[in-house]
Amino acid sequence: MRAAKRTLDEWAVIISDMRASGMTQKEWCERHGINFSSLIKAQSRLKGQTRKDALQTTPFVRACVALQAQKITFRVGAISVQTTPNDAAAILKVLAGEVPC
User: Fold this and answer.
1) Domain limits of the chain?
2) What is the average per-residue pLDDT within 12-28?
């Protein structure tokens, strides 16, 4: 009897566990009864899905905000953006996904 088809979310957990194990992919698959070629196909599908999702999701990042008289500076890593207090609220709504950009 064929095993039920796993979702991408289920594969993401399986792949995360496999990577954390320190074993090779083949060793891990043999030990856990996972078909090696299924694992490789799932990794490929997840990689494609991740690229697609990257365009649709907004990850949380640590940002520094500096307030000066009439401007606000947002810094994330090496990127710096200056704006006015009025525009800052609109920018934050876009970053939070409340309004489309």
Assistant:
1) 8-54, 64-95
2) 88
